[in-house]
Amino acid sequence: MRRGIARETKLRAMGEKRAYFDHAATTPLDLRVLEAMMPYLAGAGWGNPSSIYAEGREAAKGLDLARRRVAELLNCRPAEVIFTAGGSESDNLAIRGAAHGNRRRGDHIVTTAIEHHAVLHAVERLEQEGFRATYLPVDGEGFVDPGSLERSLTGDTTLVSVMYVNNEVGTIQPIAETAALVKQRARRIVFHTDAVQAADYLDLDVERLGVDMLSIAAHKLYGPKGVGALYVRQRTPLQAQLLGGSQERSRRAGTENVAGAVGLATALELAVRERVTRAAHVRELRDFLLGAIPADLARRLPSNLSLCFEGVEGEPILVNLDLAGMSASSGSACTTGSLEPSHVLTAMGIDEDTARGSLRLALGKDNTMEDCQRLVAALPEIVERVRRLQPSYRLAAERSAASSAGR
Ligand SMILES: Cc1ncc(COP(=O)(O)O)c(C=O)c1O
Of 99, 230, 268, 342, which cross-links 90 as Cys (Cβ 3.0–4.6 Å)? Predict the structure, then answer.
């Protein structure tokens, strides 16, 4: 370990570039986005967009333009775009807002077992409040079976939420077909999709997708953190979740993050404009990383590679990669010292031990072939080393758990 830290210190001293493979967690800010935001951070548009004087009017102009730009990219009306503080808030507003807004009509919500916790926890909270929920299973590849969705719908179903792209394994659900299936059953059922991981690479035209609500977040698109948007089709009943001012047509109170909204609009515009080249670039890198391993990748995001190593845990692999100057993520969520296997992988039928050895590589537009060659050169040795150390690792963990329990 000490040798690893020494090497890391040396790398930093030499100014060696780190290789970042965690673009599904967040992305670095594109300098073109920062440039577009600057007038609203430290220029003429710094005012409160609700104020009537010049500084406020300038901010309101920026906000208004950002809303129109996002609406154009989603193919909706500007009034159907609500700016939020990110993907989690968009999901919470969609789920809680539509469930409560439609409560008169029914109390049943359908979602999937592999959603992000921003959706799952919101649905679980609604269950505590008296709603009923169905969590659709997925197959071994991570796809929802249309038959099980169809069977889950009842006369009381008011909301269906199915994610566009899964953040861990990159599976792309056929959202247009799924929304159509729900609408065939009953037009009044509100259909939401979490498109947070899809926005970089896939079509977000809400008319073509046929969705009523769609969540996005700027920081997955080389935009700023803490800003997102929720598209809500007009006349969709939605109960505001943040109360106070009448901003966002009384659907989301709070002084708007004007610079953030401008950043989101710019990041989305760049993503749409550069989508084809970005996708081709990450696909080439992903295929290189995958090497000769056979895999069906047709319905997966081109930037995602999710691997499981038998007999090792993901966490020490990540630590060793970090020491070697590389950032990646595992599917495991570290909760109070115990490594919980990912709910996504277990829903796909992967056993808990194997799921604990997961590694998610999420590529981005600025990754290079050299980054990937560096990873390929380092990873086998790291996995082997971790595997060899694993029994003692386990023993040490058990001992420390026993000693802290005894304290
Ligand atoms: C699919 C998905 N939904 C929602 C979120 C939450 O977004 P945010 O971090 O902007 O709150 C994420 C972030 O990882 C995500 O991947």
Answer: 230
